[in-house]
Amino acid sequence: MATKLNLDKLDYQIIHEMMENAETSYADLGKKLFVSGGTIHVRIKKLQEMGIVKGTRLNVDLKLLGYDVIAFIGIYLEKSSLYDTVARELSKIPEIVRMNYTTGNYSIFAEIVCKDINQLRNVLHDQLQKIKGIERTETFISLDESLNRNVQVQP
What we know:
Number of helices: 5
Mean pLDDT: 92
CATH class of the largest domain: Alpha Beta
Low-confidence stretches: none
Helix content: 25-40%
Shape: elongated
Order of helices and strands: HHHEHEEHE
Radius of gyration: 20 Å
Number of strands: 4
């Protein structure tokens, strides 16, 4: 059962602005939204307590750090009831950066970031294939990321 969020226009404006640039100071954001920095601080704290804001992340160009391979893995499970167990084991593989329980052909769709093809082979062959409950996988290597953006939140 979804809980009714008690958010107003200012909350949504704060979320939008911080999604665009989380480095913006509370004082600068307050000026932009015509409220005090203290108000921004209180609102951010409320959004954190509600679980809407889950920290901040640094947006890093992984290719510049030598991570040249991004792959997507479609994972077929022996039975869908194994999802929780398999997902727990997959989350132990540090190269897996995103994982979704999906409808369609695959039970799980995961994104993997590696430095090179050898590391990808190691993840697929030496780690992923040894997890009990995985029937088989299908790998898609990304040639280029054309778009990566946040959703535009609205009240």
